[in-house]
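Hmm, what's this shape?
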Amino acid sequence: MKFTIFRDILLDALNHVSKGLSTKTPMPVLSGIKIEVSREKIILTTTNREISVQIVLDTSDQVTVYEEGSCIVPGKYFIEIIKKVEGKTVDFTLFEENTIKILSDRSNFTLIALEKSNFPDVSFESMGTPIVIKSTLLRQIIKQTAFAAGTSEARVVLTGVCFELKGDKLEVVATDSYRLSKKVTQLPEPHQPIQINIPSKALEELNKILESKDTDVELFIISNKALFKIQNISFMTRLIEGNFPDTNSLFPNTHIVEIEFNKNDLLATIDRTQVFTGNDVSSTIKMVLNRDKTVHVFSSSSEIGRVVDEISPLKVQGIDQFQVAFSARYFLEALRAFESQEVTMKLTGELKPFLITGKNDDNLVQLILPVRTF
């Protein structure tokens, strides 16, 4: 097996395919990258059994194949080598089935290949009609929802992000039971109703690939897996089993007060107020609406001190006095999900979930459960 490839092309492919590498596994082969070389193309594949990634590089002026073959190259070391070499091209040669020679400019590396017979057989074959989503839109969906998913394995179903198709609408929901993010997106054409739960960690890895893409993404649902196809990249993740909870009943129908803020002013105020409490989930901030339509924000630490900050809302509707306490971290993460410059807090009661909406984010809503303080 022998080929020559431009370093930049190989490094870009390795950065993407590395999302499927395993770092902690009893199977060393899962820390490797499978390289398959034919006259027409080079295929790079990784899998950690949760996420699998495959990239196809067609032969061209920048990708030249001299001998066909396949091997498993140690992923961590191969990526480090390609990052550090300075040559414009990389020559890759496999000798005697287990010795890999990598040449670039004045650098000469030798790697011992992993046993390829132990590498899992992963199929990226797509079946059925795909759900087509613009990469920019999918990136936005992940950014605005995945952060709200749970992290505790005690409730595995909440560690995922629920994608539910209803005709030509895609509803995406993530919650850890203390906060919730929901985004509704209009699709170009209707699809059969379906609900799937995708691990939030997998979506965050997918998002890193999408950052450099501006194209259509095809989503295929295959048995208990979701397959995303982005140009020459296939990204597959297992789905979480179990029923995602029905969250529609959590959204209050009425509100006793609505307070509109400039988002950047509110972000800065909350950020200043949590200076003594840190960014931990348990750091609590109290917000008080006064009769003069100003809002005071408080936090305190028995060991350090107390913070009081004031912000003037853009608009207040409803009762003229109110107070609510909440996790500063949850609140900041919810605010950062919005693209609007004006956001509105919709409050129903001191201990009832409150909503945050954005003036220009009609399809996005954040819900946060208040904290009881005495």
